[in-house]
Amino acid sequence: MIKKLTVKVWRDVMILSLIIGVIPSIVLIKFAPAAIQALCGSVPDSAKAESISNTYVICLFALFFIVIDVLVVINHFTHSVGKKVKRYLAENPGVTMEQLESDFETAEQLEDVWIGRKWTFGESMDYIPVEHDKIVLVYSESWRSKRFETFYLCLGLLDGTVVKTIVREKTLPKFMELYGRYPHILVGNNYIQMFKNNRKALLDIKYRSGQN
């Protein structure tokens, strides 16, 4: 389980690194010598075609994206799949790795989310795994930019925590269908405000009777 999820994570990280890391590095290699030469008081040959101020700006932008790239890699090291699973096991001593592995192997996969009988696994989630007994509400959110719209599957937990992961819009109904099979889980966006503002009343709708 950990290996499979980790491979997916690092595949995504490598693609992202190519986008925000490699190209800025090439740009920096090209323009940094001229910027360093100018800082040392000399006039670089490239000044005839490109102003020194533009060269500085280009180098600063390239450095910015390289720093972002490094921070992304560090974040994935410090918040790895393995560490998240170990944290869950430490907080739940009654659960074993063998149980998680068994549930993962029989889980139904939708995109990059595996929904097992007792747990949900997703490599981009802040918590791995997510225990179904602690899920109160499943709903969706979206974020729109000028050209794109990103959709999130949101798992609202008993303590008010929300675990999110990016999914495709067309897959959301299937997610709702799968989680709707659990007698204690509410699905749909109609209950978002109640989850945020009056979770006790929301639990009375389905969670408490479903758990019993």
Chart the SSEs and their pairings.
Layout: H1 2-39, H2 52-78, H3 81-91, H4 97-105, E1 108-110, E2 113-115, E3 119-122, E4 130-131, E5 135-144, E6 149-157, E7 162-167, H5 172-180, E8 186-187, H6 192-197, H7 199-211
Parallel strand pairs: 5-8
Antiparallel strand pairs: 1-2, 2-3, 3-4, 5-6, 6-7
Helix pairs in contact: 1-2
Radius of gyration: 23 Å
- Taken in chain order, the helices and strands follow as HHHHEEEEEEEHEHH
- Strand percentage lies at 15-25%
Low-confidence stretches: none
Q: How far do the termini sit from each other?
A: 31 Å
Instruction: Count helical runs.
Output: 7
- Helix coverage percent of residues? 40-55%
Number of strands: 8
Structural class: alpha+beta
**Average pLDDT, all residues:** 85
Report on this model:
There is one protein chain. The protein has helices at 2-39, 52-78, 81-91, 97-105, 172-180, 192-197, 199-211; strands at residues 108-110, 113-115, 119-122, 130-131, 135-144, 149-157, 162-167, 186-187. The longest helix has 38 residues, at 2-39. The chain is built from seven helices and eight strands. A four-stranded antiparallel β-sheet has the order 1-2-3-4, sandwiched between helices.
